[in-house]
Amino acid sequence: MNVGIDAISVATAHYRLPLPALAEATGVDPNKYTIGLGQQHFSVPAPDEDTVTMAADAVAQLIGRTGTDEVRSIFFATESSVDQSKAAGVFLHGLLGLPEHVRTVEFKEACYGGTAALQCALALVARNPEERVIVVASDVARYAIDSPGEPTQGAGAVAMMVSASPRIMAIEQKTGVYTKDVNDFWRPNDSSTPFVLGHLSMDAYLDAFTGAWDDFAARNPGVKSTDFARFVHHQPFQKMARKAHRQLMSYTGDGRGDEIIEAGLHYSAQVGNCYTAALYWGIVSLLTHDSGLAGERIGLFSYGSGAVSEFFVGRPAARYAEHVDGAAIDATLASREKIDFSTYRALHEERHVDSRDYATPHVTGAPYRFAGVKDHARRYERNKRVA
Ligand code: HMG
Question: What count of other Cβ atoms lies within 10 Å of the Cβ of residue 47?
């Protein structure tokens, strides 16, 4: 039985900062960011946006196409959660008026959380093929100002309908997994930005890639990297995916170059790191920029600092290209409001991290907004400015 992604949609934040503006204002050669990291812009949330509003936007688009019949679970993956107890998906459930008879849970393990949620959804659907599961990965990557991570910020969400007989991409059952306790990137409860050992994190990512590949190869005797037509890797910034690709090619003796990852890299360079959603932005990028992949095997690599990784395999369905709308995604990205460096830094400084009462200004053009905090509880609402 085929189980996998039947529909997929994306959302991002209201603003975008061009990387050259950050570089020029901080005295860095812009080529370091645009060539060295491979990034063009990052998305910046408005004060009335967060992980829940971006996820609500993506899920609303998704269920507009698929409906909610037989949806029995909503899995929300994030590492920029808005509450320590209540799952972000429960806010989203109320905001979208989703059916009561669903289980709603939050998943966390840094950027790997989206893949953990997807694998659990696949297992539930395999157990009962009548059921469907909504998986949504949504994050705001926000680093300390003037830190090396600052140019790799971003914001975005990806929502997926997981079902039997998927119209976009079946996911194969056998995967390779790997866990190693390493302090490369973490965010303690009292900090709104992560602690990062950037170069250690790159090494940990590459080690976790070969670790997951080795486990995959042990469970699939005779597999070769040349069995895969394309690869999509977790992409905190474009160059990291290129480094991962070179690592696998040299590890396996596969002589192929970046042409087999290129189509999966377009959107991450525009939105920045979306943590749990980053790999899935890459998959959407591949499927919207390469229409000849039906039936091929696509190698997918997910990494979450800390560190957990998984190598798994997608197989695009016969008519997948009819179910992904690249023009709509391009329009969403182009509609973001461009901001200058000082506006970006003011937004960065302004973000509330406490639960005092406050109301947010009306800024976002997205369909749902974060209205502020009242009686210590976060309030969300439909955006009356959007028809
Ligand atoms: P850095 O140390 O300031 O940068 O920050 P660098 O000196 O390593 O330079 C970066 C690249 O730019 C290099 O390319 C330079 O040569 C090049 P490379 O040699 O590596 O190919 N460069 C230039 N190129 C053209 N013209 C120039 C120029 N100058 C330099 N003038 C670092 C880089 C990644 C450390 C930093 O951005 C950072 O800390 N980022 C956050 C951590 C991160 O993204 N790590 C990635 C792996 S871990 C991961 O993916 C998990 C994560 O998503 C979190 C989670 O799981 O939740 C982050």
Answer: 20
Per-residue three-class SS string for 317-333: CCCHHHHCCHHHHHHHH
Q: Model confidence at 387, in pLDDT bands (50, 70, 90)?
A: low
The DSSP H or E segment spanning 374 is strand 368-374
- The band of 225, judged by pLDDT with boundaries at 50, 70 and 90, is very high
Structure tokens at 339: 């901001």
Note whether 312 and 302 are within 8 A (CB).
yes
CA of 151 to the centre of ligand 1 (A): 9
- Ligand 1, atom 51, lies closest to the CA of 305
Residue 99 has pLDDT above 90, yes or no: yes
Q: How far apart are CA 225 and CA 218, in angstroms?
A: 13
Average pLDDT score over residue span 264-288? 98
CA–CA separation, 114 and 135 (whole Å): 8
Contact (CB, 8 A) for 125 and 81: no
Q: State which of 79, 140, 147, 152 you would mutate to test the pocket of ligand 1, scoring each by most atoms of that ligand within 8 A of its C-beta.
A: 152
pLDDT, average across residues 318-347:
97
pTM metric for this prediction = 0.98
- Which residues, 6+ apart, have CB-to-CB distance to 145 below 8 Å? 345, 348, 349
CA 214 to chain centre: 25
Ligand 1 site: residues with CB under 6 angstroms?
Answer: 29, 31-32, 35-37, 79, 110-111, 148-149, 152, 185, 196, 198-199, 201-202, 205, 234, 236, 239-240, 273, 275, 303-305
Q: Using 50, 70 and 90 to split pLDDT, how confident is the model at 21?
A: very high
Rounded to whole angstroms, the Cα distance separating 174 from 224 reads 14
The distance of Cα 159 from the centroid of its chain, to the nearest Å, equals: 9
What is the DSSP-derived secondary structure letter of residue 161? E
Strand partners, 177: 310
Mean predicted confidence (pLDDT) in 254-270:
97
Which of 59, 234, 16, 84 shows the shortest CA–CA distance to 157? 59
Q: For position 75, what pLDDT does the model report? A: 98
Indicate if the pLDDT at residue 353 is higher than 90. no
pLDDT, position 151: 98
